[in-house]
Amino acid sequence: MDAAVKTLLQAGSGLDAIEQGIRLVEADIRVDSVGRGGSPNLLGEMECDAAIMDGSNLMAGSVGALKDYLHAISVARAVMTRLPHVMLVADGAHRFAAEIGAEKADMLTAEARERHERWLREHVPPEALGKWPDVPLAPYVWESAKEYGAGGTVIFLVRDARGSISAGTSTSGWAQSYPGRLGDSPIIGAGLYADSRFGACACTHTGEMTIRCATAHSVVAYMRKGASVQEACREALDDLFQLRGGQLGVVVIHGMDFYGNTCVLSSHDVGEKASYYLWRDDTGETRHLAAEIARQCKSEA
Q: Domain 2-106+145-293 in CATH: superfamily?
């Protein structure tokens, strides 16, 4: 937050603030769900996702399943500004990151590797572990879903001095996910959406749900139709509660309207993971706040 606020106070754009703030989280190996030091997939590979959106013109860029590069958010922003595309994934994202000279890194730290190997020892029978990874992986994804589910995305919503509203996300995704899994973080309209005329939204945790409901776009669309940011977040959460089947779990919706009013609404209580930070220029201080808790979300396969 300090880096993002400093950027804003130096007349930087909301996009600049988002990128500077998220880059620090991506590089912080203490964060086990974003960037370097994050959680690998079932093959022990780090696949990072990120997205950024400019609400002043609805331009956006995202990358999915990006390997070997430290700052997925910067690559996503370059997709937005340097290409006619919105999203690049896997090999294409890797190639583009190399073309723009993005910073390479060994994204799998020793600590993350140990966590992954310990999980395999605890959940994979010896006969399958001896053949790993040349075994069917799908059964083990369900095991990781029981233990971890999805979560751990860093998001920023910013309204800058020009009145432009922007949103950004970055994550290393679901721990022990099936290779190639994309959550909502890189998907415009699901994990994030920004429209400077009305507001912005970004989501964390169970992206499989917010993809199905286009949650981030829904929040902004509800505000466009006259709902307050609180009403819009509650309406979008009600949409999520109607889902049946598939992976169901926690969703935390972060919304902000044109005036800078905010609402952070969690489907159920997950403690510190349902808290957020808020900085406003009228107070000049960053506050650590608890999300509003809606009600328990029943998991159902």
A: (Glycosyl)asparaginase (3.60.20.30)
Catalytic site positions = 153
CA distances to 59, 228, 274 from 290, in Å: 31, 19, 6
What token pair was written down for 21? 């703030």
Identify the H or E element spanning 5.
helix 2-9
Question: CA 212, CA 203: separation in Å to the nearest integer?
Answer: 13
pLDDT of residue 54 exceeding 80, the answer is: yes
For residue range 114-161, what is the model confidence (pLDDT) as tens digits?
999 999 999 999 999 999 999 999 999 988 887 765 568 999 999 999
How far is Cα of residue 112 from the mean position of the Cα atoms in its chain?
19
**d(Cα 54, Cα 19) in Å, to the nearest integer?**
12
| Burial of residue 33, with CB atoms counted within 10 A of its CB: 0-12 exposed, 13-18 middle, 19 or more buried | buried
Query: In this structure, how many other beta carbons lie within 10 angstroms of the beta carbon of residue 54?
Result: 23
Structural tokens at position 136: 């069917």
Please state, in angstroms and rounded to a whole number, the distance separating the CA atoms of residues 206 and 190: 11
241: its two tokens:
């509660």
CA distance 284 to 38: 32
3-class state of residue 51 by DSSP? strand
Instruction: Please give the C-alpha separations between residue 149 and each of 85, 204, 207, 246, in angstroms, as whole numbers.
Output: 30, 12, 10, 12
Domain boundaries, the chain: 2-106+145-293
Q: Are 49 and 185 in contact (CB under 8 A)?
A: yes
> In sequence order, what DSSP letters do the residues of 164-225 get, joined into one string?
-EEEEEEE--STTPPTT---STTSBTTTEEEETTTEEEEEEE-HHHHHHHTHHHHHHHHHHT
Instruction: Give per-residue pLDDT as tens, 164-178.
Output: 999 999 999 999 999
* Amino acid in position 64: G
Mean pLDDT of 258-285: 90
